[in-house]
Specification:
Elements lengths: L6 H17 L10 H7 L4 H13 L3 E4 L3 E4 L4 E4 L5 H7 L4 E12 L2 H7 L6 E11 L2 E11 L16 H9 L3 E12 L2 H7 L6 E11 L4 E10 L3 E4 L5
Parallel strand pairs: 3-10
Antiparallel strand pairs: 1-2, 4-5, 5-6, 6-9, 7-8, 8-9
Bound molecules: 2-acetamido-2-deoxy-6-O-phosphono-alpha-D-glucopyranose (16G).
Length: 238
């Protein structure tokens, strides 16, 4: 690193360099040793340690005595914008995928009928998926769609693809807005197993009712997101 740079610029450059390096590693990966890092970034050990401590405080990495410095799993920051799971993951450089857990038709009970604005007793598709980001389980999601709004729905298309893209491409259904409710919960033994975490692990339940550009309710979905991998960000103004 250029020795003529003022100290704060040097620290800033080191911080940027470390963040870039961290970004190139998966969660849990071990970073090079302090000696290697101070040589690579041409900074004194003390300067490096100071920066590592700062990043540790921010939850970007963690250090284990005698074992080294490790990249921490970064929570996905969910913005209050109507995005699909696939869009959200791609935006964060992760590869979205799904495992179809079940698919079937159910008769809408009073609550579901009200949510989807259909007659009680009408046919509703129930799609349950495990959602993964770069192969890591992130959420369990059940989507409900009025069957007559999506005739000929083929769940096989969801193994690889996105539900929102399918709705748009196949039936021209574009989503405009959604109402969301977020609640804290703990996972059951089965849910925890599917998400690869211990039983009673904390999770967020998110219910979303999405409306199309023509004002129809298109989807009611209930999702369970691992609380360690999600953070909500909501912009407020006055
Ligand atoms: C999000 C939606 C979910 C929707 C899915 C579509 C929340 C809380 N839920 O996960 O309702 O079904 O995106 O994703 O954000 P896809 O287009 O990737 O299948």
């Amino acid at each position: 690193m250029d020795s003529t740079l003022p100290r704060t610029d040097k620290r800033q450059k080191l911080r940027q360099g470390l963040l870039t390096l961290i970004g190139q590693h998966a969660a849990g990966a071990r970073l090079p040793t302090e000696r290697e890092l101070s040589e690579r970034f041409e900074v004194a050990r003390e300067t490096l340690r100071h920066c590592l401590r700062e990043l540790e405080g921010e939850g970007v990495l963690h250090r284990r005595q005698g074992a080294g410095t490790f990249v921490s799993a970064q929570p996905v920051v969910k913005e209050a914008r109507l995005m699909s799971f696939s869009e959200e993951m791609r935006q964060r450089g992760l590869v979205p995928s799904s495992r179809l857990l079940s698919f079937g038709t159910v008769q809408a009970g009073a609550k579901l009928a009200h949510r989807l604005m259909v007659m009680p007793g009408s046919a509703v598709l129930e799609i349950s998926r495990l959602r993964l980001a770069s192969q890591e389980p992130m959420a369990l999601e059940s989507s409900y769609l009025a069957a007559d709004r999506v005739p000929g729905f083929d769940p096989a298309a969801l193994e690889q693809g996105s539900l929102y893209e399918l709705l748009e491409q196949r039936w021209g259904l574009q989503l405009r807005g959604a109402r969301q409710q977020i609640e804290a919960t703990v996972l059951s033994r089965e849910e925890a197993g599917q998400l690869g975490v211990p039983p009673f692990f904390p999770a967020l339940v998110i219910e979303r009712t999405s409306t199309s550009t023509t004002g129809e309710v298109i989807e009611y979905a209930k999702s369970l997101y691992r609380a360690d991998r999600y953070r909500f960000e909501i912009n407020v103004s006055r």
